[in-house]
Amino acid sequence: MALKYFPLLILVLALATSKRTLAGDPDILSDFIVPPNNTTVDGTFFTYTGLRGVFDGVPETFKVTKASLTEFPAVDGQSVSYAVLQFPANGGLNPPHTHPRSAELLFLVAGSLEVGFVDTKNILYTKKLQVGDIFVFPKGLVHYQFNSQPNMPSFAVSAFGSANAGTVSVPLSVFATGIDDEILAKSFKTDVDTIKKIKAGLTSK
After folding, report:
1. Average pLDDT score, the chain
2. Distance, CA of 39 to CA of 41 (rounded, Å)
3. What is the pTM of this model?
């Protein structure tokens, strides 16, 4: 009798798994969410001014300015957020990282960028972007952006399908979270001294 219901069980499990896989931010039962400490809801609540002047200067190192749930509470429940990425000339780098809760749609507005991501088969996809190009980084995959232009900074705007996409830095998560040096040395087929040098390089300013 158990085998009789086996196909139905498989179907139920498949549907449950696909629902979890496709889910991003949870659906809300209202038009929008107002934080408990907010007493006034008007046009100002739905306006974010934190990106004003963001293109007026060029930072000395890579800089990201976000308009996500933390900075802009009105996006709570709306499954959307933005980030402005600023890359100085000659080596501005957004190191390999992932966004566990969203894909990233990057729009290059100035300069050029070398971008890439690695899929679950360890295949690297790269492209050199020019102004006006859009590139999508699939959800949860390791990716990076790099400005190799010697005299030209680059600026990009990234959109996310989550109010809180999350960012996991590969170098920091591997080398700056307390994983034992011997474990890392064996994992990367090197010695403990090399691991310590890498860790020191990440913590030095």
Report:
1. 89
2. 7
3. 0.83
